[in-house]
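Deliverable D4.2, example record:
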Amino acid sequence: MAKFLKTVFQIGILYLLYKAGEWITGTFDLMIPGSVIGMILLIILLFTKLLKVEWIEEGAGFMVRHLPFFFIPAFIGLMVYYKIFLGKGFILLIIVLFSTVLVMVTSGMIGESFKRREE
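Output generated by the structure prediction step:
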């Protein structure tokens, strides 16, 4: 029971950061999504050691383990607009493949640059 409450509390911390990002976006009428602002706040708090990794580790781990469930509503929403995608399968396939390769190459280059800095 204690582990459950700890996980819920940690998810609550992450949710508060998300809501703070949403508030900042709404208050200052920013074009950046509130979730991105929330992640930036999280990174700042972690780097400044105002928020310790241990305080959110289990909650974040739980959310990452169950990440596929968070995509289900988005995919269901896409089904409503299937007519938009109808007949565009080939171009969508090209876009998905290109963006996947682009992300893989970029991630690899960033990873290699970090590795070189370590050495």
